[in-house]
Design brief:
- The protein is an alpha/beta fold.
- The protein folds into 2 domains: 14-199, no CATH class; 245-308.
- The chain is 40% helix and 25% strand.
- Strands 1, 2, 3, 4, 5, 6, 7, 8, 9 and 10 form a 10-stranded mixed beta sheet that branches.
- A hairpin with a 6-residue loop joins strand 8 and strand 9.
- Helix 5 (215-262) crosses helix 6 (269-286), helix 5 (215-262) crosses helix 7 and helix 6 (269-286) crosses helix 7.
- The longest helix is centred in the C-terminal third of the chain and has 48 residues, at 215-262.
- It is elongated, with a radius of gyration of 34 Å.
């Protein structure tokens, strides 16, 4: 499967030391940007990490929100290389239509390294849009999403039965990254985020004091975010399991009541099976409570019995004239054998 878009995750932003960014970019690339922008603005983006992501897969055969995608260490390292191969555009938000969107910057470097014991793909982006810079400063943009063409291998149904599971086999191409807000959407890759920001005029102060949001604080906040998201997912899966169990229990009770009501009726086995299936299907749509179950089952059984009676009547009607018919029956014609035709 190809041409898929993955929606990932977010976290808090911290200030990043300018010297760190210059070392990552290299002096040549840094000064090239400085020639275009006297006060360049950069962000560090945690795009993806090894483990499980969840969300929609878009393409010829779209998959739903509960889709699980498994990312190995090799795929994360491959993603980082793809991000670093060429300039990848950075957009403001994104949707499933892939219509032209507002470009606000570009990825200028990418690496893979361990973050909280997971191999992660980190991208470093130059943000050119002044309005978006201000939104990042104010913490109103704090999510990072990946748009890429991937190759998947289907693993099968999830444990809860509420979605499919896929293995990411290859990164075909990376088409962009999108910045968003945690308040507006909760993407499905634990940890993906705008990690840090750095500007030409934002540096450590003369005393060398740490910035308000140190990396240790950020990692703790990220861990809390991931725990909250995992709890939300577990609650969702539990609700799906409970719903499925309730459905099965309701179906079992309906079948018991139907079987009791039709047990003494003069019905063939196929007819009983038909009544049971039709009544169960109709009551599943209504989802009756225990108090109304007997009454509704009787109503539906009566309807199905009436339909069976009508079918019997229509089936027997075309042959009814044979019982009382006085029309002469044409005698069978004698067969004439032709000696010239073998077997005649």
């Amino acid at each position: 499967m190809r041409n898929k878009k993955l929606v990932l995750k977010r976290a808090r932003i911290q200030e990043m030391a300018l010297e760190d960014m210059r070392n990552i970019l290299g002096e040549e690339k840094y000064h090239e940007l400085k020639s275009r922008d006297k006060h360049p603005f950069f962000v560090e983006l945690l795009v993806a990490h090894e483990g499980v992501s969840r969300g929609k897969i878009l393409g010829p055969t779209p998959q739903g929100r509960s889709t699980k995608k498994f990312w190995s260490k090799d795929r994360i390292e491959e993603l980082a290389k793809k991000l670093a191969e060429k300039i990848v555009p950075v957009y403001l938000f994104h949707d499933s239509s892939n219509r032209p969107r507002r470009k606000v910057g570009e990825v200028i470097s990418a690496i893979s390294r361990k973050v909280r014991d997971k191999v992660s793909a980190l991208a470093y982006a130059y943000i050119s849009d002044p309005e978006v810079r201000e939104l990042i400063r104010k913490r109103k943009l704090d999510t990072c999403s990946l748009e890429a063409e991937l190759e998947f291998e289907r693993w099968g149904k999830s444990e809860s039965g509420s979605g499919l599971e896929w293995m990411v086999n290859a990164i075909e191409a990376v088409s962009g990254l999108a910045l968003g807000s945690r308040q507006a959407a909760r993407p499905g890759f634990p940890g993906a985020a705008i990690l840090a920001q750095v500007e030409e005029f934002i540096e450590e102060n003369a005393q060398g004091e740490e910035t308000p949001f140190s990396r240790e604080t950020l990692e703790l906040e990220q861990a809390l975010v991931e725990r909250e998201d995992e709890l939300t997912r577990l609650k969702s899966e539990l609700a799906a399991l409970q719903s499925e169990r309730e459905k099965e229990e309701r179906k079992r009770k309906v079948e018991e009541v139907v079987n009791r009501q039709i047990a003494e009726l003069n019905l063939k086995r196929e007819e009983k099976k038909l009544v049971l299936e039709e009544v169960s299907e109709r009551l599943e749509l209504k989802q009756p409570d225990q108090d109304n179950l007997q009454k509704l089952v009787k109503q539906e059984v009566d309807k199905q019995l009436a339909k069976l009676a009508e079918l019997r009547r229509l089936y027997q009607k075309p042959y009814a004239f044979l019982k009382n018919s006085t029309a002469p029956v044409e005698p069978a014609r004698p067969s004439i054998k032709n000696p010239l035709i073998p077997g005649a």
